[in-house]
Amino acid sequence: MNAYNSRRARRPHAVIIGMMGAGKTRVGKEVAHMIHVPFADADLEIEREVGMKIPQYFERYGEPAFRRVEADLIADFLEDFEGVFSLGGGAPMTPSTQDALADYIARGGRVVYLDADPAEAMERANRGGGRPMLNGDANARWKKLFKERDPVFRRVANVHVHTRGLTPQGAAKKVIDMVAQRTVHVTGATIEPYDVAIGEGTMGHLVEVLGPKPHKIALIHTQPVQRHSDRARALLRQGGYEVSEILIPDAEPGKTINVANGIWERLGEEGFTRSDAVVGVGGGAATDLAGFVAATWMRGVRYVNCPTSLLAMVDASTGGKTGINTPQGKNLVGSFYTPAGVLADMRALVTLPNDIFIEGLGEVAKSGFIRDPEILSILESHADELRGFDGSSFLGTPLEDVVAELIERTVTVKAYHVSSDLKEKGLREFLNYGHTLGHAIEKLEHFRWRHGNAVAVGMVYAAELAHILGYIDQDLVDYHRSLLGSLGLPTSWNGGSFDEVLALMHRDKKARGNMLRFVVLDGGPGHMVHLDNPQADAVEEAFRRIQQ
Question: Within its chain, how far is the Cα of 153 from the centroid?
Fold first, then answer.
């Protein structure tokens, strides 16, 4: 059973928490109605269980007894209720309930903090009555409780929904969209933490991620993603930013010093300062360039990536490696500079051509080989559907959930390596599995070959080299070819001589002086080693084998 199927466990679709008067019951009922699942309110369920209203129970037995009953009931519902479950305002403050919610999240659950406008919430709480925790000066008590509870709610929840100015129906729609999204948190000792949000509508968080500080935004994008950049521009203008739209050439031709220099000149002419920001919308090349511009303008300004291709979502947009190409090789000039956030909006994939989607699977498979073999199982199980990807009919199908899980798992692999080694001094180099030859192929093909396709051939080459040197068996080499081939990725290349390839591999970023350095599997998927200066005849023999 793969991870996609194993997650079909009995648990709530979502658990809603928030302050008294936040609208948890009303919004929760709307969410349940819209997605056709049951709704349960913890307070009503407690009243049924104890046979009296909560204010009576408080008066007769006190708050500690009530919290014990509440915690037991919540624990039961988290294990055996498949609907939308709303908790009482104080429930998440109980340590045992916090533990139960953390376990629920670990099993794939979504705890939604419904963050309402305080004035609206206080007015609703007062109007509703029957709230023992608000006895006395209700507004003063609400504010005191909010000060205590808000930090806990933020820590306990993994989905944060602002409902200010929204109708219950509008808030419910926002909850549904955000519950369907997945988030990978990227952090580390030398990294300012940021999130990669994955799902339909994540671009809607653009203003939230940029924050209030920037005034001007440089919106960098390519022509093929004009539809998505139009959406970004509209969101930015609604957020009150002044937007400068900058169109760059598509794919690798956009990653040059001339393109970057043109953007720098424009930023200077338009008065961009260190408090302004950059937004990159497009594929991997566009997000690489946008990050490089952000890293170098005035020694670094805030930037957000909105990747529109599978490759960019799983690779280029995350990790903080920014760069441009030179005549001598790919990504030889760049900077390590992390984004403020990455918004991988699944809606962007509807315009993605089949061949560009498939090339992104090369980087997905790479993450499976280097750390998460479950990725390989999912790719095997769904190879036919993935190879037949059609963006126009993609959303709302079972394949959407498969792709979202592949993106989440792949980004998680990248986050693990980046958090441990931001500046690629050791562990992070494992992310370059297949890239030593892959980058050489791209250069010799004058970037007519897509990155993911070149990496696929590069992984077969690395597997052949590892086999020749005794690190893996022939079956694993064959598995590389069969899996990648089943996805529609190339597994051989015959577009250049060994001498040409060798010269370019010596310029690879992993090379040390005149010493070649490869990343190879050691025994099986998930076990990686650095291979320094392997035997020359083995390097050439592996190359001969990928030409067949």
Answer: 23
